[in-house]
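Deliverable D5.2: sample structural annotation.
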Amino acid sequence: MALLLAVAGLSLAATCNTVVPVEVRDSSSGLAIPAKITVYNASTGAAVNLGTATSGTLVSWFQNKAYLGAGSANLDLPSGVWDVWASRGPEWTVTHQIVDTSQPQPVVFTLSRAIDTTNYLAADFHIHARPSFESALQSPPLPPLPDRVLHYLTEGIEVMGSSDHDCIVDYEPIISSLGLGGLVTSLVGVEATPGLNSYPDGRGNCDQLSGGSSPVNTEQGHWNAFPIAPTWSYETTSDNSISAAGIYDMLRGFGDSSTLIQLNHPYFATGYANIGWLDKNNFNPNVAVPPAWTGNSIPTNSFLRKPSPTPGSHAQGIDFDVIEMWAGASTVQGRPARDAWFSLLNQGFLKIGTANSDSHNPAKTAGYPRNYVDLGTDDPSQVTPGQIAAAVRAGKVIGTTGPLPTLRVDGAGLGELVTDTDGTVDVSIKIQAAPWVPVAEVRVFANGALVRTIPLAPHDPEPAVRLDDTIQVAVTEDTWILVEAGVAMPANPTDEPVVPYEYSRVTTGIPPLSFTNPVFVDANGNGRFDAPGL
């Protein structure tokens, strides 16, 4: 079987016999819009593997997914009855139609914007393509970089943060060549992978059609740096014993004062290595980070104080800026990351929480999870990498796979400090979600404690605004407050949440969850946030 796509007269060789023109339109304007088409067997619900190919322009396809950069294509379907879905990411509705190849006719899908994301841009800060060693070793080889742009564009991602292993990739020239500059922008980054064996030229200006070899299994963890200059030649390090702080110095040397260091997947054991830095170093969220490095791994959590070997540097392991709370689909790995984040916040290490796809190939849904960054605009052409980094550094970030929670405490927004000494604060919560995104409950945390769970009754159809309310939360000390929204978390921390059927048709099994970064309350009136401690 094969799937044929055609745009503006360009087509791929067909091996099947029924061509079905498909178009996806915006219900408001009537114009064709970028979208993803997903094909399932109408009888069994099974995904249909239609192969892998690219048109080289504004259409790409992989297995049962077609990525339509211009919103139209021809599907060359094998004989049968197919359940064909159209989607545009969590800001839009989804729809599907049954296509019977015995009665072929053009199919027009109409999608509507479902939620208001004014002032927010959808960003993924952890994207891989062919230069990463796992991607280069895929069989068949992964599509070239233009296809990766389409994978994310059609899922509604507006900021593509490149993060190939020890390779620097800039999507901007590709975005411009495809004429997509008003829809998506590039944020150049790199994923430092200590222990990674050298690329052919020993540096990170890698061939974009191949990557290096797998790292040795003693690597200690991964860190992203963004934004960095696309012209830098990144020096690969095969030294897996280099300290985390030494890596920070190296990465910050490739950027400027705006460069952020993101601790990637802090809990992540793979088939070949444990690349979760906190997990591998036995971080204990119930034990305080010691005040200084003592030259060994004792006491507990001492590794966070290990200094950089760089002469003149004062960097320590704790000096990353961002912690990746959720990488990919696993909430089992995300739950200990949340415990670690809450512990650090309570100790005054005010790290920013993000959620990213860490997607290495199109089999893993692009842009789920993602971040919504409050940038005062929803036009990606109007922001610079420095502005994106500044908003992240300020904590104006929401991580999600669908629900969009917004939070204000006494009128203060994410990352902001409000002074309130009367013992109670007003916590205003608004939860938006497209009709196909389930939201069962909202959870309110204060200094890491779950202080309120708000169940949300299901409706048919689901409204775009699932909750818009203000509650009171008692504060007896300086307090940080954040909210989560989505499905209920299983009592067993090793279980993944159940994913509803319609939602899974679009996201391929990723659970609907979200979180905000915190708002800080100065309860003692001294004008600053005094961390409560453990």
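Annotation notes: Confidence is low (pLDDT under 50) at residues 1-15, 136-142, 198-205, 207-217. The first helix runs from residue 133 to 136.
The annotation will be released with the project's public dataset once the embargo ends.
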